[in-house]
Amino acid sequence: MASCLPPPAPAHPGISRVSCSTAALDAVLNNRVDFHFQALPTAMPQVIAGKLKILAVSSAKRSPAVPDVPTVAEATGLKGFDVTLWAGIFAPRNTPAAVVMRLNQEINSVLNQPDVRDSLARSGAEANPMSTVEFAAFMKSETSKYETLIKDEFCSRLLYGGCGGYGAAVILVP
After folding, report:
1. In this predicted model, what pLDDT tens digit does every residue of 14-45 receive, in sequence order?
2. pLDDT, tens digit, for every residue of 1-11?
3. What is the distance in angstroms between the CA of the first residue and the CA of the last residue of the chain?
4. 3-class SS at 162?
């Protein structure tokens, strides 16, 4: 069983907040909330089982895993909406550069294997191997993008003035 922190107080009377994706997914499945942003790979088993419907994906482009599902931008008219989940592997500060480079090469090698890419794609995830320099630039870009998105669009338009730092890959309904 997942352990979650208590949710923050709602910023708007019509909005329920759940503090972690496991509890939120359970809340959608049990009709305690109307919709939720959820990572596509963790939602896919419930979607395949027919327990959830994806209303939109939050990335800028449609997902190859669910090509008939529109993006949030397409479904709502929020131009430029692109909230994409990603994962990176980090090493402690002062890790020798040679170790970081070797880890990067080995991880990218695994991510480029056809069976790994296929497995990720079936679950709704996409591999995007990067060099350490590319990943640093990507992180800088993501930080800037989300700062603007949270301030200008997401909080003001979707959460009616309140923001708890939400963002994920799909909008789900039971």
Report:
1. 445 555 567 777 777 887 777 777 888 888 88
2. 333 434 444 44
3. 21
4. coil
* Run of H or E residues at 41: helix 40-48
Decide: helix, strand or coil at residue 53.
strand
- Fold adopted by 21-173: D-Maltodextrin-Binding Protein; domain 2 (3.40.190)
Sheet containing 36-38: give its strands across.
Answer: 36-38, 170-173, 53-57
What is the residue-wise DSSP string for 104-116? HHHHHHHHTSHHH
Residues 6+ apart with CB under 8 A from 80: 60, 73, 153
H/E stretch holding 135 reads helix 132-149
Q: What is the DSSP letter of 71?
A: B
Residue 55 has phi, psi (to 5 degrees) of -85, -35
Most distant pair of Cα atoms in the chain: their distance: 53
